[in-house]
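In keeping with the milestone schedule agreed at the kick-off meeting, the structural modelling team has produced records for the first pair of proteins. Each record is given below as a sequence line and a structure-token line. The laboratory manager (R.T.) confirmed that both were archived under the project's standard naming scheme.
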Amino acid sequence: MNAIFQKGTRYKALFVSLLLSAIGYGLYKGVIDNYLAEVAQMTEMDRGIAEFFRELPGLLLVVVLAVLYNFSAEKMYKLGMCVMVIGMTMQALISPTKALVILAIFIYSMGEHIQLGMRNTLSLEYSRSGSGGRALGFQNAVYQIGNLAGYLAVIAVFALVAAAKPFKHFFIAAAVFMAAATVVSFRLSGNSATDPSRRRFYFRKKFRKYYMLEVFYGARKQVFFTFGPYVLVLFYGADAGVISLLFAVSAVACFIFSPLVGKLIDRVGYKPVMIADTLILVIVCFFYGFAHHIFPMRTAFIICCVNYVLDSVISLASMASNVYVQDISDSQEEMKATISTGISVNHLITVLIALLGGWVWKVLGIETLFMLSAFLGLCNSAYAATIRTSRDRS
């Protein structure tokens, strides 16, 4: 770590805080889908509404960063942690009425979105010259380890006391870990500047295809992120232990395949990867929507679990769009500003898909929902095929 980070910086406090908050998130994420279905009694449509409010802070983030432009990255990180603790504590203490549960989700998500960009900013600020990539890689590894620890705890507890359904205990434990992460975060000092490109929208005509790709990707991603686990819970009856095991396997798979996908993008180019990943998605969506018509329910459930992990892996190909932006950008600043705008565009479509997806599932069934995702994937492939790369121009 001394070879990656500058002496005299508070990088150790940052990563201890991240590890603790990641454990808390793993505990929370491992049980929230089952809690919403089994305790809050949320239907397919209700889940879409809850996801709308979970994604809404992503749209509001530009406004928040603009209002708090005088805050340093350290202060923004601490603020995000405090808001996350409030949201998680509320989730642990409130009665499971739909309105209050959604409010708690919104508050927690607001803190998470505030903190999200600050992790990268601080990791880069604390790194030595030329070590930014390794610093971000180390940060991601720390967070993944924390998530895995949380998922494994859920798996272990539900293997022993599944009948007790101790959801509230997990929320309390998550709040405790996040409170501890907040306490550690107050050791962060300094005045690191936040990324100014995240405070404004940056549109240029040459990036229009990137923005459209973000629209298609955000739409298809949201279907699986929101409704993938909920199908397993509501339709197949998976408990929190099984869902946490699925998340753990997905995290390990992404940890293993992420560098391989990165190498593939460098070797064959970003355009073929953009096209191929969504073609594979069509197969994934077909089995997710129709497996129960073809196979016995138990076999269909296993097939859906395998396809959920496969979707997590092929989603790594979204890195290709960032490489595309890098290829056509005139500077590092323009690249960062464009990617930040792409994130906002992504969130704009995800909040709409969250509501639409819940309605489609309720009215037309999961078959139509995942065929919609497959159609969006095909649109993504068709649009990606129109891109002219540097290889095409040479």
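The second protein of the pair:
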Amino acid sequence: MSKEAIHIIGGGLAGSEAAWQAAEAGAQVVLHEMRPVRETEVHETDSLAELVCSNSFRSDDWEYNAVGLLHQEMRLCGSLIMRSADKHKLPAGGALAVDRHGFSSEVQHALEAHPNVNIVREEILKLPAADDWSNVIIATGPLTSPDLAQAIQDMTGEDELAFFDAIAPIVYKDSIDFDVAWFQSRYDKGGPGGDGADYINCPLNKEQYETLVQALVDGEKTEFKDWEKSTPYFDGCLPIEVMAERGPETLRHGPMKPVGLTNPHSDEKPYAVVQLRQDNALGSLYNMVGCQTKLKHGEQKRIFRTIPGLEGAAFARLGGLHRNTFLNSPKVLDEELRLRSAPHIRFAGQITGVEGYLESAAIGLLAGRYGANQQLSRSNTPPPLPTALGALANHITSGADSSTFQPMNINYGLLPDLQRDEFNPRDYKGKERARARKRAKSERALRALQIWLNENDSASEVAAAS
């Protein structure tokens, strides 16, 4: 089970999903994970698929949200990540949030029990030659170890590209003052496992908000290392103090927007609201939404305790910031996620330039299926472009401009426009038109994906039987 097996390097969400998909297809898999042999700056355990930042997989609304559509497509593909998330979901309004420890344990136990998977705890320091391992998937994520990162850079011939990712603080629920704070989802919207009152809300009046913004701007930040200073942020995960620096109204039109919320303790409408989302199954820990930060730990405690309801907050974890690395994928990867200069190597996950837990796992899903087909002498057909899976994969392999390539979340803009026979905008008015267009794209995507699965899975069954 060496050269003939698929060797997957990295046991995060993408690597775990790739291993599951390949093993379920009948391929032999060796999954290499460096923890606990070598630790990282942000992981706390040696569990596979550990969530190191938020515990939210974002919206689970497949009809009107592209992330929710991706969830549904991955479920149809037999995703281990989605199966585990659904089993360990927590109340989170319209989002799919999970108990992080239950989730990672579920993923690890499933892979440990699979007869086609062998998990090896070791650090891989270099890219394997085709004569040694002929079928490789690299899913080392944004925290690829320095030796392997250097090897990747040497082989691709590209300068390393990087951005920062930030971690939000986690607060103990019993330290929150519920004479001030209250439970409510925006517009009372319920989601998987939720009841429409899934977030803790801390209200700020205009003076309190402005004081908070100024404190974030003035607060003492952790110094950047020399190699970090020229690295750009990814706009989808900006530190809260960077958002504050962009203008006094930025936060209250972003993560602290007060819309859709009613304070039961006061007739005064909040000027801004800080929300906290459940972070564990017990409901004892809550994550401060949008409060990822590079503030020094002492400053975090001082500043965040000025928020009404959090004056006595006890922190289970404080925020932090780390560097993420990613390939210039449109230039170096082909449509099957193979390295053009070394086609025995595929890449998966966040290192390919997708942003988000589920986007990373989705590329792992495809890489695992492609690798299995290669091992079992089957042809590879990428998913159709009208699907979320196909659109995301297309973006990182050919759809984006390699000269300006940056990490990307799944969004409806990546899916092709609807044809007139699929959607007639004259049938709708105003906001109804935009919602109907999203629904039509989602329905088209699920139809196209089901056809792709039927054709490819049927062909695989025939090949296996012969």
